[in-house]
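Possible race condition, two jobs.
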Amino acid sequence: QVQVVESGGGLVQPGGSLRLSCATSGSIFSIYVMGWYRQVPGRQRELVASITRGQSTIYADSVKGRFTISRDNAKNTIYLQMNDMRPEDTAVYYCNSVTPPLSLDWGPGTQVTVSS
């Protein structure tokens, strides 16, 4: 079973940027679609961005034009570049498979807080 560890979160001001990393313990080449999810207490978990093995990407409307997901198959790592951040981006961010759905054990997540 592939294990994941998310990192790169922190406190950022509105309009600022953060880059998240999802390091995996093994190959993710066999996972067709990987994604970044975010969780806020009282809300449904949201799929923020997804990326296929072939580097095609899909974004939630709430982050489109601001966030960029990338996948380094050689390093078995998924990234999320977050620009022009807003307070509503505040959440714990997790990575997991999208296709097949949620096939990996959840990692610890990384806290992102956007506040002035």
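Job #2 (started ~2 s after job #1):
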Amino acid sequence: QVQLVESGGGLVQAGGSLRLSCAASGSILFINVMGWYRQAPGNQRELVATITSGGSTDYADSVKGRFTISRDNAKNTVTLQMNSLKPEDTAVYYCNAAGVITYQSNQRDVWGQGTQVTVSS
């Protein structure tokens, strides 16, 4: 019912920037927390950044000062601005929505399909 679609991934050189976007669709009344996670080959999926409906943010230490998360509650979208990218940022980035309230159900977690981000040396 509820779907998340990511966009904005690609290949960039170290020091460059990318902006990832995620749009949630469906009969959505409210999303408590939206965030971005990433997973590189051989690694576990890790939290990158989250943002609550009220605008409170949380970042992984590895991206603090470089990444900025934002959201538009009216549009049910979340954006991750990534600056000063490093090769270590290379991963598949997944959009997440937690605490999704619709007209017919509540969903704990909804995940997008993921978008590849590759940072070359």
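The longest strand covers residues 28-39.
Logs attached separately.
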